[in-house]
Write a structure and sequence with these properties.
By secondary structure, the chain is mostly helical. The protein has a domain of 30 residues. 54% of the residues lie in helices and 0% in strands. It has 4 helices and no strands. The longest helix is centred in the C-terminal third of the chain and has 15 residues.
Length: 90
């Protein structure tokens, strides 16, 4: 692997290495190790159903037909192929 740094990045790395009395490679490897060991924030977070009920308790009820119609238009807007769309069961 080749890692190309800008002149500014190289100089900052050089200063950091000198300040820590380490090689530039040691500092770079430590930074990479620290980065890859960080927890990756998940896009979605699981939330207990009871908490969802509390959060959305003021919303008016929605019929199943209205929900299907609304989710169908959402799928079309997002470009989900027709074969992957769910259809109301007869």
């Amino acid at each position: 692997m080749t890692l190309r740094l800008s002149d500014e990045q190289t100089e900052a790395l050089r200063r950091k290495a000198e300040a820590e009395h380490r090689s530039m490679q040691q500092v770079a490897l430590a930074a990479i190790d620290a980065y890859v060991q960080q927890a990756t924030p998940s896009r979605r977070q699981s939330v207990p159903a009871t908490e969802l009920m509390t959060v959305f308790q003021d919303l008016p009820p929605m019929s199943a037909e209205a929900l299907r119609a609304d989710s169908g238009s959402l799928r079309r807007r997002r470009g989900i192929p027709r074969r992957l769309r769910t259809h109301p069961r007869a």
